[in-house]
């Protein structure tokens, strides 16, 4: 047939096309592990599993299989900025965050239980979006935020010059909290009043927490919250959940990549991977 020997032995490197039935099975398995994943994250997870697929096809199949989640919004006020403590300027507005422990973001949210609310204070590293400190309490006072701060400091042990950014709530503006920040050499930064975009990454984390964990389980007691939330934060959000602002990798994996790049033989030690700025 006048064919070259290499042609006879050639094996195509193109992966076979996966049928809709098999793809739906793969999608259902992902949605079972991450019930609040949208079609974009499902597509990213499939690609991480070496399955090339178009996001439009994933959206079509998830819609046909009723796998698209719809979440009701709930809101409870947790910020009280009517106090006599000093306010501090916003130091992170317009800043390009390029390394770990450059900016920490802090905020408080609530978790509804059968007889009231439980409050969660959390601290994120703004570069990796990893939760590095958190605390859970039935009371909304400064001790809640201080516990989260102490966890973050113990885990990271950062040097002076770190910017701690929060809202203007009394829990963060209190003399006790600010004194702890300044004792570590941290710079105090606060969002503008009534502007959620000044702390958008924290708002995004709390939205994820509510949609992918809190609204899926019927918490009845504080013990239920104490048992579930640490697992979601450490094992799911930090370790496994794909983050769109990080190029669809989990925060822990993003930090590992950042450490590898920082320790590589680049002349200027510049990190090549930067998160999308909110």
Could you characterize what this model shows?
This protein has ten helices and five strands, in the order ααααβββαβααβααα. The protein is α/β, with parallel strands linked by helices and 278 residues long. Helix 3 packs across helix 4 (55-64). The longest helix has 17 residues, at 222-238.
Could you give a quick summary of the protein structure above?
By secondary structure, the protein is of the alpha/beta class.
Write the layout of secondary structure elements.
Layout: H1 5-9, H2 20-33, H3 39-48, H4 55-64, E1 103-113, E2 116-125, E3 131-137, H5 142-156, E4 163-166, H6 170-173, H7 175-183, E5 187-190, H8 200-212, H9 222-238, H10 251-262
Parallel strand pairs: 1-4, 4-5
Antiparallel strand pairs: 1-2, 2-3
What is the terminal separation in angstroms? 61 Å
Instruction: Estimate percent helicity.
Output: 25-40%
Number of helices: 10
Order of helices and strands: HHHHEEEHEHHEHHH
Strand order of the main beta sheet, please? Answer: 3-2-1-4-5
Give the oligomer, counting copies of the same chain as homo and different chains as hetero: single chain
Shape annotation:
globular
Report the count of strand segments: 5
């Amino acid at each position: 047939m006048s064919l070259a020997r290499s042609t006879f032995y050639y094996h195509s490197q193109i992966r076979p096309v996966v049928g809709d039935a098999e793809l739906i099975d793969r999608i259902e398995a992902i949605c079972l592990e991450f019930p609040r994943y949208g079609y974009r994250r499902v597509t990213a997870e499939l690609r991480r599993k070496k399955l090339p697929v178009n996001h439009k096809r994933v959206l079509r199949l998830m819609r046909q299989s009723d796998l698209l989640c719809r979440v009701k919004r709930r809101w409870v006020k947790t910020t009280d900025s009517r106090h006599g403590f000093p306010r501090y300027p916003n130091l992170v507005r317009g800043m390009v965050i390029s390394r770990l422990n450059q900016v920490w973001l802090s905020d408080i949210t609530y978790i509804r239980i059968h007889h009231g609310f439980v409050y969660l204070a959390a601290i994120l590293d703004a570069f990796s979006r990893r939760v590095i400190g958190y605390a859970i309490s039935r009371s909304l006072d400064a001790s809640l935020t201080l516990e989260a701060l102490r966890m973050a400091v113990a885990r990271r042990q950062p040097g002076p010059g770190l910017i701690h950014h929060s809202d203007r709530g009394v829990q963060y503006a209190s003399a006790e909290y600010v004194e702890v920040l300044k004792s570590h050499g941290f710079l105090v930064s606060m969002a503008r009043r009534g502007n959620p975009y000044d702390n958008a990454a924290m708002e995004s984390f709390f939205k994820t927490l509510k949609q992918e964990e809190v609204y899926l389980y019927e918490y009845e007691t504080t013990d239920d919250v104490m048992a579930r939330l640490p697992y979601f934060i450490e094992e799911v959000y930090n370790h496994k959940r794909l983050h769109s602002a990080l190029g669809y990798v989990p925060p822990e994996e993003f930090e590992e990549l950042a450490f590898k790049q920082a320790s590589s033989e680049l002349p200027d030690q510049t990190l090549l991977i930067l998160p999308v700025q909110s």
